[in-house]
UniProtKB/TrEMBL annotation, chain A:
Record InterPro entries: Acetyl_CoA_COase_a_su, ClpP/crotonase-like_dom_sf, COA_CT_C
Protein name: Acetyl-coenzyme A carboxylase carboxyl transferase subunit alpha
One GO CC term, this protein: acetyl-CoA carboxylase complex
Catalytic activity: N(6)-carboxybiotinyl-L-lysyl-[protein] + acetyl-CoA = N(6)-biotinyl-L-lysyl-[protein] + malonyl-CoA
PROSITE patterns according to UniProt: COA_CT_CTER
Annotated source species: Melghirimyces algeriensis
Molecular function as annotated in GO: acetyl-CoA carboxylase activity; ATP binding; carboxyl- or carbamoyltransferase activity
Oligomeric and partner information: Acetyl-CoA carboxylase is a heterohexamer composed of biotin carboxyl carrier protein (AccB), biotin carboxylase (AccC) and two subunits each of ACCase subunit alpha (AccA) and ACCase subunit beta (AccD).
Broad class of enzyme this protein falls into: transferase
NCBIfam families, sorted: accA (TIGR00513), AccA_sub (NF041504), PRK05724.1 (NF004344)
CoA carboxyltransferase C-terminal domain span: 34-295
Main subcellular localisation: cytoplasm
TrEMBL record, chain B:
Broadest EC class assigned to this enzyme: transferase
This protein's name: Acetyl-coenzyme A carboxylase carboxyl transferase subunit beta
Keyword terms, alphabetized: ATP-binding, Cytoplasm, Fatty acid biosynthesis, Fatty acid metabolism, Lipid biosynthesis, Lipid metabolism, Metal-binding, Nucleotide-binding, Transferase, Zinc, Zinc-finger
InterPro entries, alphabetized: AcCoA_carboxyl_beta, Acetyl_CoA_COase_Trfase_b_su, ClpP/crotonase-like_dom_sf, COA_CT_N, Znf-ACC
Length: 322, 289
């Protein structure tokens, strides 16, 4: 959990150093004493410290950044990356799930379908959106919008940011499993380019249900995991407090997933994480989306399906005994 | 030594009746975990491992299931030479795999192959919950995907018996991605108009329930099988309310429209034969073919 000003615990030494520099600067102005040498030394130290802290983030520190309350959400990215966004609601079967948002927008003038988990902003919004944990109707809305995109030949862009699918009685009654499973199968078959970006938390099947893309991209400090670190710790050591160790063992960072050949590209974040500069972050994502889309625009409909199948067919590590 | 055993197994088609003989439990009597009724193991076998007193369906090993469903000596195994690696160097994973290989005499948690059922050819997959709770790692995902490709190529129906605790945590995101891999393989099959029958047995939960197991053209389940996405305890903690008695049972899913039928084990083979029969011949092909 962040301490004051949205600073995370591991950022504390840096924050303290910055405060000291500020004090000295104030002192210089007020007392007209030249402390520029001292300030320069401290600035140098701050730079080194910044490099040390942000350049060597542990998995658990990344998880904290991915969960930062000020981390930009899908709606932020939609606003910064696209124009003419028109939100479309409902699954036509049961209801409208605000934990998933979707609609049509333009990406530099090109109409695309945009879908993403939405965690919400303030407390009221977060509660209304169930903190971004979708029910089956959320996945079915996403499916409806993707089928629409397929019909009109629009590329699909998905933003993934959820702790997971909602675990609840009604979700089970309405077929949470089936809703996720169907999306996985249908996404594999769409004849349009699909680019998926994991922006924050990639929580298990609930995240995967909108991430069967031709290209899977991940922000530098996002994570993607089969189980939450807390859940894994509870199973492994019967102690949710060991989430830190579990996070390391599960290999959940963007860098881990790149090494395992699961994702295609790691999108850089500003120092300290996306929340430090959402506009810069959006720019980085937009660039990465275009890099992913360009080769896909060269493929015909069958090639797009083939490309996606090939991507997932290749994922897995095992031995073949002769 | 263990390796030799695999070597022998993989060279030849597994003949399930012989395989199953080795799997007969050592105990002479079995106590029903549901009603406490004590039955001779031999008698229980004859009754397809269903308690005569309360109808409890004992879990079956993959060889036992194959023996009960597939025509005798008509099963030829695929891909028994695939075995799990430890890609994340996850604590104790290798040891656990070795122990389960020894215990089950299987190379992994699913057995796939082709055979005939009532004379109808089919691709068949059976998960075995004795092996790592039949959780889905890279090998389980790969074998199921390959079986689906075989079905799509040969135009044989694919019948898959699920039983799984879900994803295999020890393979991290690689395990998660098997959900997409298997579902993509089924998409291909779906496009080729090849029949997929999913039989959900106890328990089918998590990532397996939320991928191939829910994607049957026809979804069947055994009585009282636990089927669901989220674990019962997780849900209880989230909603803080008492869950209905039959929550996440096969009967619950049937009531909520998630299954086509709940099928008693004694009727499973004939039900499958009926489905295969209903899908054989008489097909009106589309005009464009
Ligand atoms: Zn009984």
């Amino acid at each position: 959990m962040p301490i004051n000003n949205g600073q995370l615990p591991f950022e504390k030494p840096l924050v303290e150093l910055r405060e000291k520099i500020n004090e000295l600067q104030k002192f210089t102005q007020e007392k007209s004493i030249d402390l520029s040498d001292e300030i320069a030394t401290l600035e140098e130290r701050a730079k080194r410290l910044e490099h040390e802290i942000y350049g060597n983030l542990t998995t658990w520190q990344k998880v904290q950044i991915a969960r930062h309350p000020s981390r930009p959400t899908t709606m932020d990215y939609i606003r910064h990356i696209f124009t003419d966004f028109m939100e479309l609601h409902g699954d036509r079967l049961y209801g409208d799930d605000p934990a998933i948002v979707g609609g049509i927008a333009k990406l530099d003038g090109v109409p695309v379908t945009v879908i993403g988990h939405e965690r919400g902003k303030d407390t009221k919004d977060k509660v209304a959106r169930n903190f971004g944990l979708p029910h089956p109707e959320g996945y079915r809305k996403a499916l409806r919008l993707m089928q629409q995109a397929d019909k009109f030949g629009r590329p699909i862009i998905c933003f993934i940011d959820t702790q997971g699918a909602h675990p609840g009685v009604e979700a089970e009654e309405r077929g949470q499993s089936e809703a996720i499973a169907r999306n996985l199968r249908e996404m594999a078959g769409f004849q349009v380019p699909i680019v998926c970006v994991v922006t924050g938390e990639g929580g298990s099947g609930g995240a995967l249900a909108i991430s069967v893309g031709n290209r899977l991209l991940m922000l530098e400090h996002a994570y993607y995991s089969v189980i939450s670190p807390e859940g894994a710790a509870a199973i492994l050591w019967r102690d949710a407090a060991k989430a830190k160790e579990a996070a390391e063992a599960l290999k959940i960072t963007a860098q881990d997933l790149k090494r395992l050949d699961i994702i295609d590209q790691v999108i850089p974040e500003p120092k300290g994480g996306a929340h430090k500069d959402p506009v810069f972050q959006a720019k980085q994502i937009k660039e990465a989306i275009w890099t992913a889309l360009e080769p896909l625009f060269q493929m015909d409909r069958d090639q797009l399906v083939y490309d996606r199948h090939e991507k997932f067919e290749k994922i897995g590590v095992y031995h073949t005994v002769d | 030594m263990l390796k030799d055993l695999f070597r022998k197994q993989k060279k030849y088609a597994t003949i399930p009746s012989e395989q199953a003989k080795k799997e007969i439990p050592e105990g002479i009597v079995k106590k029903c975990p549901q009603c406490g009724n004590i039955d001779f193991a031999k008698e229980l076998e004859k009754n397809l491992k269903v308690c005569k007193n309360c109808d409890y369906h004992y879990p079956l090993s993959a060889p036992e299931r194959i023996q009960m469903v597939v025509d005798e000596e008509r099963f030829f195994e695929f891909d028994s030479n695939l075995s799990s690696a430890d890609p994340l160097s996850f604590p104790n994973y290798t040891k656990k795999l070795e122990a389960d290989r020894e215990k089950t005499k299987l190379s992994e948690a699913v057995v796939t192959g082709e055979g005939t059922i009532g004379g109808y050819p089919a691709v068949i997959g059976v998960m075995d919950s004795r092996f790592r709770m039949a959780s889905m790692g890279s090998v389980v995902g790969e074998k199921i995907a390959r079986a689906a490709h075989q079905a799509a190529t040969k135009k044989y129906p694919f019948i898959l018996f699920s039983a799984s605790g879900g994803a295999r945590m020890q393979e991290g995101a690689l395990s998660l991605m098997q959900m997409a891999k298997t579902s993509a393989a089924l998409e291909k099959m779906h496009r080729e108009s090849v029949l997929f029958v999913s039989v959900l047995t106890h328990p089918t939960t998590g990532g397996v329930s939320a991928s191939f197991a829910s994607l049957g053209d026809i979804n069947l389940a055994e009585p009282k099988a636990q089927i669901g996405f989220a674990g019962r305890r997780v849900i209880e903690q989230t909603v803080r309310q008492k869950l209905p008695e039959d929550f996440q049972t096969a009967e619950f899913l049937l009531k909520h429209g998630q299954l086509d039928q709940v099928v008693h084990r004694s009727k499973m083979r004939e039900t499958l034969i009926q489905i295969l029969d209903l899908h054989s011949g008489g097909r009106v092909d589309r005009a464009d073919q």
